[in-house]
Write a structure and sequence with these properties.
The protein has 564 residues and is α/β, with parallel strands linked by helices. The chain is built from 24 helices and 14 strands. Bound molecules: nicotinamide-adenine-dinucleotide.
């Protein structure tokens, strides 16, 4: 069945050429003869009508002929700017090939080069100059029915640091994944960058930099700006889900605590990462046969990702009956100053629960020797820091040592898949943030897991949108993680995978959305009455990247008011 025309309140094009220049409505060479006739497109397109499959073929031929990933990124963004439906069809159909381009690792390079590859503005910018009139400015966004916002202030882009306004690549990319993986309607997605300045001197001196030329706003002024932003968003798009992304960690934790009980929001770097890593840990236990309570987990890096993961591991152990303080004893942290132990100087409030009584250790190797972990999780942003000696020491303490090198992009991974498998004679259970190719060792092929947040946040978002949830809770993420771990098949586990193959992402996102929706109803956080068939209800919210027929029976369907 052809999809209905979904314009979500957008004004329809008037003249023929406007249909071609509007990425929401454009079908390019796939406009049918009848549509060309009635919409005034005759002569504006080459005569042959192509099918969507033929258009996909053309895009992929171009994509594969490019000589660099950055060129592929530019090609895909340009396609998104010209024809969104075709963009989502390609990304959905070739997700494994597309993911490293439209998201990590290539999106990192794209953000660094944003001013150079900039062609057309995408997303919405709010700057510190807009104080006092944010709601008014947000109404410039052409679509009134926005359901999901991803917002960054560009301070900590992936593991690449402060990229200021260049960070826009992240919300744009994340929202593309909401659509490609969970079918959130692209018209209901809004990427936002809050430009409060940057500390990045190179960017401040660069004539092509697209952001404000000022040092970052800090302190009370910054907080007031974010407060106005959240209030404005709630006023203009009531009930919208706000995902905070790639904020510096001193702001990320504070903002999450401030807003999580007041509005529908979550922080993907903390909670999404927590859930995806927890799922990997739970699946690894299916491989090793161990219990979570018997593990000693050592984190390298005590930021948003590390603390987010530890909090979820502790929450699961608490749910299994361990007192919280005891549950936290299973998690240890090494940061830039060594092992985090009780009494160490200058520990932030988030690190304190994990500062256990122990003698100090200056570096990771001595911490591994002292703690004897069964699991080592790298979230430090420091590439190649899991040395052979560290990994081999770890491997003494467990028959299936877990090695997660989660730092992004690839150059920042704490070790490679090949290193982890080779140094442990194939015993390691490995996952990374950026993708690594399978490794064959002594005739056995090991498939590394990619602990990509894309397994979690699109499904959580779909569950929230389908139920009109008022809040996002940690319980929803734990439910999502358990669901994800349960979806890894035996044959996938046998290859060493701790996540389902990415080709299953739609099935995975739908299952997670339904589980999250169950949690939302159980917690009485839904605003949509519970439907009789929850799975069918959630599925009905999934956008299909197919062209609508603008002229069924050769008659223009121009009166679209109210159609959704
Ligand atoms: P963050 O800035 O909040 O934390 C980084 C932590 O690393 C800090 O605690 C810092 O003290 C520590 N650190 C820095 N240098 C160190 C050193 N030399 N030795 C030990 N510790 C050191 O950043 P974050 O949000 O926690 O992200 C960290 C990394 O994890 C990034 O590279 C990010 O891309 C990656 N990440 C991966 C995933 C995923 O794979 N799904 C998700 C989120 C983040």
């Amino acid at each position: 069945m052809k999809p209905k025309i979904n314009h979500s309140g957008l004004a329809l094009p008037v003249k023929g050429v406007d249909w071609l220049h509007n990425p929401i409505f454009n079908k390019g060479t796939a406009f049918t003869d009848a549509e060309r006739e009635v919409l005034g497109l005759r002569g504006l397109l080459p005569p042959h009508v192509h099918t969507m499959d033929e258009q996909v073929m053309r895009v992929m031929a171009n994509f594969r002929s490019k000589s660099s990933d950055l060129e592929r990124y530019v090609q895909m963004v340009s396609l998104q700017d010209r024809n969104e439906t075709l963009f989502y069809r390609v990304v959905t159909q070739y997700l494994e090939e597309m993911l490293p381009i439209i998201y990590t690792p290539t999106v990192g390079k794209a953000c660094q080069e944003y001013g150079y590859i900039f062609r057309r503005s995408r997303g919405f910018y709010i700057s510190s100059e807009d104080r006092g009139r944010m709601a008014q400015i947000l109404r410039n966004w052409p679509v009134p029915d926005v359901r999901v916002i991803v917002v960054t202030d560009g301070e900590r882009i992936l593991g690449l640091g402060d990229l200021g306004a260049y960070g826009m690549g992240i919300p744009v990319g994340k929202l593309s994944l909401y659509t490609a993986c969970a079918g959130i309607n692209p018209l209901q997605c809004l990427p936002i960058t809050i430009d409060v300045g940057t500390e990045n001197e190179t960017l401040l001196k660069d004539p092509l930099y697209t952001g404000l030329r000022q040092k970052r706003l800090r302190g009370a002024e910054y907080d007031a700006l974010i407060e106005e932003f959240v209030a404005a968003v709630e006023a203009v798009f009531p009930g919208v889900l706000i995902q905070f992304e790639d904020f510096g960690n001193h702001n990320a934790f504070r903002l999450l605590e401030r807003y999580r009980t007041r509005t529908c929001t979550f922080n993907d770097d903390i909670q999404g990462t927590g859930a995806v890593a927890l799922a990997g840990v739970l699946s690894s236990l299916r491989l090793s046969g161990g219990n979570l309570a018997d593990q000693r987990v050592l984190f390298f890096g005590a930021g948003e990702a590390g603390l987010g993961i530890a909090d979820q591991i502790a929450a699961v152990l608490e749910a299994e009956g361990l007192p919280l303080a005891e549950a936290r004893q299973r998690c240890w942290f090494v940061d830039s100053k060594g092992l985090i132990v009780a009494g160490r100087d200058q520990l932030t409030a988030n690190k304190l629960p994990y500062a256990h009584a122990h003698a100090p250790c200056a570096d990771l190797l001595s911490a591994v020797k002292a703690i004897k972990p069964t699991m080592l999780i790298g979230v430090s942003g420091q590439g190649r820091t899991f040395t052979k000696e560290i990994v081999q020491t770890l491997a003494q303490y467990s028959p299936r040592p877990l090695v997660f090198a989660l730092s992004n992009p690839t150059s920042k991974a704490e070790c490679t898949a090949e290193e982890a498998y080779t140094w442990t004679d194939g015993r390691a259970v490995f996952a990374s943030g950026s993708p690594f190719a399978p490794v064959t060792l002594a005739g056995k092929t090991h498939v590394p897991g990619q602990g990509n947040n894309v397994y979690i946040f699109p499904g959580v978002g779909l569950g929230v949108v389908a139920t009109g949830a008022r809040r996002v809770t940690d319980a929803m993420f734990i439910r999502a993680a358990r669901t994800l771990a349960s979806l890894v098949r035996e044959n996938e586990l046998a290859e060493g995978r701790v996540y389902p193959a990415l080709t299953r992402i739609h099935e995975v996102s739908l299952a997670i959305a339904v589980a999250v929706a169950e949690e939302i109803y159980a917690a009485k956080l839904a605003t949509v009455p519970r439907p009789a068939d929850l799975a069918a209800h959630v599925k009905s919210h999934m956008f299909q990247p197919e062209y609508p027929d603008y002229c069924p029976h050769g008659i223009p369907q121009m009166n679209l008011a109210g159609v959704r």
